[in-house]
Write a structure and sequence with these properties.
By secondary structure, this protein is mainly β. The chain contains no helices and 19 strands. Strand 16 and strand 17 form a beta hairpin.
């Protein structure tokens, strides 16, 4: 019924995102120093230091990070005071508070999120687009600087 050809996949490595590991720092955790991890990380406690992840970093509702975060993607539900550089997306949920610079391919900011800083979008072709933060009344507390490719502010 089964021949040797069907068993050829036995030793091959097939990446499965469901098999990625997730590390969690609980609400009572306090970390001072640098964190380096290849997998996904969820912070529900406090981190005073930089985070380097090969996967997704989630800052939970009680989580607070004071430091730089680098990784594939970042989702902020809690508080971040520091710069974030990711290869994919940064998501700021409605309850989030963020101060710093974001460098990402994509950014999603929900209404109600507090964002104080700058955002630079970088695509596959490495074109850099800077945006200035401005307050959007009734939406959220974001201020996005709007500048052209030469870095000069665009008047509205």
């Amino acid at each position: 019924m089964f021949n040797n050809k069907s068993r050829s996949h036995k030793n091959s490595v097939i990446p499965n995102p469901a098999l990625r590991s997730l590390s969690i720092l609980s609400v009572s955790a306090v970390v001072k120093g640098e964190i380096t991890i290849e997998d996904d990380l969820r912070i529900d406690g406090n981190v005073d230091g930089d985070i380097h992840s090969g996967g997704k970093v989630v800052i939970g509702p009680e989580g607070c990070v004071k430091g730089k975060i680098t990784g594939k993607s970042v989702e902020v539900i809690g508080k971040v005071l520091g710069d974030v550089t990711v290869s994919d997306i940064v998501i700021l949920k409605a309850s989030s508070y963020y101060e710093g610079q974001i460098i990402a391919r994509n950014i999603e900011i929900e209404a109600g999120a507090s964002f104080y800083g700058n955002c630079r979008m970088e695509g596959d072709d490495k074109k850099e687009l800077s945006e200035k933060v401005r307050v959007i009344p009734g939406r959220s507390e974001i201020a996005i600087p709007v500048v052209n490719a030469d870095g000069k502010e665009i008047e509205e």
